[in-house]
Design goal:
heterodimer, A: alpha/beta, Rossmann fold, four-stranded antiparallel sheet, 10 helices, 10 strands, about 25% strand, B: mainly alpha, MetI-like fold, two-stranded antiparallel sheet, 11 helices, about 0% strand, globular, binds adenosine-5'-diphosphate, binds magnesium ion
Chain lengths: ~250, ~280
């Protein structure tokens, strides 16, 4: 299986504070990779390093390499804006724009000039179908996205992200604001999306990582402690720290 | 005294003070309406002044003020939006930005006659525009900049950060994010600011005194390089410079000016209230 993203000797700093310490990690193509670890261990920082959203933070500084399809996204002359078109992101709280459902999904393709009016309709329909939301919103595409329930809103955010046709989708605790039923529907959706996309998901919910991912990376205080197939990591962890964390004795 | 009584007393006093503040404003309005309403009729609004301005109407001054208001908007709108976008979205916390902010705050406190003299020096004489609608519009435009920039910046900053983050994460550039996500959500607030600024500009006399306003010019201007009459200056003229001026004519003019400024403030308030109610974030 191919490595979609290859992280090599990666360090990350907020000013003087080192948030990530020499991370080496390969993310497989069209697989779901879960990032787990206690709050503040650097999961979100790591995730934002993959689409360079950390560039927006003034004090932030990165060292090392992140290879996307073999090309270092931190190399000089990389177009960050273009990079982000290949790597979509879904956030912790469902955050649709206060616009119609249609306009939310159409925002990316419209702004990036990817589509004319007739193809735009197709993109919106396709994205909503892929995000398993179409049946619920088919008849109210032009209603406000804020009328949807949180679970639907989060799937709308996923539709909005896939409308620009990325290869990778980053999700930062996408279910933490959702009830169990909505959580399961998003996990279902992730599995279907993994046929097409490479998915990296941060979660502090270990059951979710165990249920929903193929690979799991365990972070602790800015270090990558263990990275394994999910089944192996949870059944037979190699590191003591991992074991005590997943068994609930730490964290 | 019990706490409840103290509470009642304080509320009572604060309400009383608030009422006292409002009374003079209401009295002024009642007074102007009472004395001016009789002068207002179709001829007053649509005819040029006659007989040394003692008869006829105020049409050239009224239209002049309308032209100047539009001119001011055209000058102020793009400059203020550009400045507000710069301050809210691009400016770092550096020396230049701090100076720009300081300048804006101070500009807001400068007496309007100083703007008039600045307009005379810069636009009328140095740019050689003469006393003209364009020179007056530029002067009034500069006058409105501080308030319009401040409200526009506030409107831009009130758009939640998460909208920008999402837009950037979708691969939109900084400018595309501002253009397609931030500005549309900030626009009602920006427009409110512009209208408030224009309301102030429409009522100002000093800035137009040397830059555009004509003492008596019954014909309408033919281009933006002509002088024009304007309501505030016309009111000043007929109140102080014309002997035997009928009082009702003066108050009628004042009433029209008041209505213009009031209705602009009203429109701005309605837009703002509407926006606050509809805003869902
Ligand atoms: N913008 C920031 N500026 C400074 N420090 C930050 C910033 N964001 C996160 N941190 C710090 O970096 C560490 C990792 O944070 P984060 O990546 O959010 O952890 P997690 O997502 O695992 O909870 C924490 O100690 C946090 O305080
Ligand atoms: Mg986090």
């Amino acid at each position: 299986m191919n490595n979609k993203i290859d992280v090599r000797n990666f360090n990350f700093y907020y000013g003087d504070f080192q948030a990530l310490d020499n991370i080496n990690l390969a993310i497989r193509e069209k697989q779901i990779t879960a990032l787990i670890g206690p709050s503040g261990c650097g999961k979100s920082t790591f995730l934002r390093s993959l689409n360079r959203m950390n560039d927006e933070i003034a004090s932030a500084r990165a060292e090392g390499e992140v290879l996307l399809d073999g090309k270092n996204i931190y190399a000089d002359g990389v177009d960050v804006v273009e990079l982000r078109q290949h790597i979509g992101m879904v956030f912790q709280r469902p955050n649709p724009f206060p616009q119609s459902i249609y306009d939310n999904v159409a925002f990316g393709p419209r702004v990036l000039g990817q589509a004319r009016k007739n193809t735009l309709d197709d993109i919106v329909v396709q994205s909503l179908q892929d995000a398993a939301l179409w049946d619920e919103v088919e008849h109210r595409l032009h209603n406000s996205a804020l009328d949807l329930n949180p679970g639907q809103q989060q799937r709308l955010c996923i539709a909005r992200a896939i409308a620009v046709k990325p290869d990778v989708i980053l999700m930062d605790e996408p279910c933490s604001a959702l009830d169990p039923v909505a959580t399961l529907s998003v996990e279902d959706l992730m599995h279907r999306l993994a046929e097409t996309y490479t998915i990296v998901i941060v979660t502090h919910n270990m059951q979710q990582a165990a249920r929903a991912s193929h690979y799991t990376a365990f972070f602790w205080l800015g270090k990558l402690i263990e990275f394994q197939e999910t089944r192996k990591l949870f059944m037979s962890p190699q590191e003591e720290l991992t074991e005590s964390y997943i068994s609930g004795r730490r964290g | 005294m019990t706490r409840q009584n103290m509470n009642k007393l304080m509320i009572g006093m604060v309400s009383l003070v608030a009422t006292i503040v409002v009374i003079p404003i209401v009295l002024v309005i009642i007074y102007v309406v009472y004395n001016g309403i009789g002068a207002i009729n179709w001829e007053f609004l649509t005819a040029a002044p006659r007989n040394g301005m003692r008869e006829g109407g105020i049409m050239p001054a009224l239209l002049g003020t309308v032209f100047l208001t539009f001119g001011t908007a055209i000058v102020s709108f793009p400059l203020a939006i550009a400045a507000a976008i710069y301050l809210a979205e691009y400016a770092g916390d550096n020396m230049l930005t701090r100076w720009v902010r300081l300048a804006i705050v101070n500009l807001a406190g400068i007496p309007s006659i100083v703007y008039g003299l600045f307009g005379l020096g810069a636009f009328v004489l140095f740019w050689n525009l003469g006393t003209s609608i364009i020179a007056g519009s530029l002067t009034l435009g500069v006058l409105t900049l501080p308030v319009v920039i401040s409200t526009a910046e506030e409107a831009i900053l009130s758009v939640p950060q998460s909208f920008r983050t999402v837009s950037l994460s979708l691969g939109a550039s900084r400018w595309q994010t501002i253009r397609h996500q931030v500005l549309p959500h900030a626009m009602p607030g920006i427009i409110t600011g512009i209208i408030l600024g224009l309301g102030r500009a429409a009522g100002e006399t000093a800035p137009i005194l040397f830059t555009v306003a004509a003492f008596y010019l019954p014909e309408l201007p033919k281009s933006i390089f002509d002088q024009t009459m304007a309501l505030p200056y016309h009111l000043y003229v007929i109140s102080t410079q014309v002997p035997d001026m009928p009082l009702s004519n003066q108050y009628g003019t004042a009433l029209v000016l008041l209505m213009i400024v009031f209705s602009m403030t009203l429109v701005a308030t309605v837009i703002r209230t509407n926006m606050r109610r509809r805003r869902e974030w």
